[in-house]
Design brief:
Blueprint: E1 5-10, H1 24-41, H2 46-52, E2 54-65, E3 74-84, E4 88-97, E5 103-115, H3 126-129
C-alpha cells in the first residue's frame, strides 16, 4: 500500500452550514474516516484493534482552513503517518478539491495508543508499527 493514502468523498447538502459552505465539523469527520480507512487498508480495521484490546484515541487535532468547499464538490483527503513514537503517533492530512486541485485545508491529529479496558497509555505493538510507513514532514505533499 502507498504510504500516502487517498480517501475520496462527494460533499452532500448535509455537510453544508448556515453560511453556505462545508461545515468545519465535516472536515474533522472526513479526517477520521480517512484515518480509519487507511488503517483498514494496512490490515488494521477497527475490529482488529478491539480483538487486541488496544487502539488509538485522539489527543488533539489541528486544522487550518484555506479555501471553502461546497455541495457537490468531490474532495480527496490525503493522509499519512508522520511519526510513530512509543505511545503516540502524528497523522497529517491534506484536503483538496479534485475539480481544480485547490488545497482546502491542512491538518494533523495526535493519536495516543491505549488499552481499551483501562484507558491507560501503552506501547504500540511491533505488528502495528510495521504496518505503517512513516512519511516525514520533509517528504510530505505540499
Amino acid at each position: 500500500m502507498p504510504a500516502i493514502f487517498e480517501y475520496r468523498y462527494q460533499v452532500t447538502t448535509d455537510d453544508i452550514d448556515g453560511v453556505g459552505h462545508v461545515n468545519n465539523i465535516a472536515y474533522l469527520r472526513w479526517m477520521q474516516d480517512a484515518a480509519v480507512a487507511h488503517s483498514t487498508a494496512q490490515g488494521w480495521p477497527s475490529k482488529a484493534y478491539h480483538q487486541l484490546g488496544h487502539g488509538w484515541v485522539v489527543r488533539s487535532h489541528a486544522i487550518e482552513y484555506l479555501v471553502p468547499a461546497y455541495s457537490g464538490d468531490e474532495i480527496v483527503v490525503r493522509t499519512w503517518v508522520a511519526n510513530m513514537k512509543r505511545v503516540t503517533s502524528m497523522r497529517r492530512y491534506e484536503l483538496r478539491r479534485t475539480s481544480d486541485d485547490k488545497k482546502l485545508a491542512v491538518a494533523s491529529t495526535n493519536w495516543a495508543f491505549v488499552k481499551f479496558e483501562t484507558h491507560q497509555l501503552c506501547r504500540v505493538p511491533a505488528e502495528i508499527l510495521s504496518a505503517f510507513e512513516i512519511v516525514p514532514d520533509a517528504d510530505a505533499p505540499s
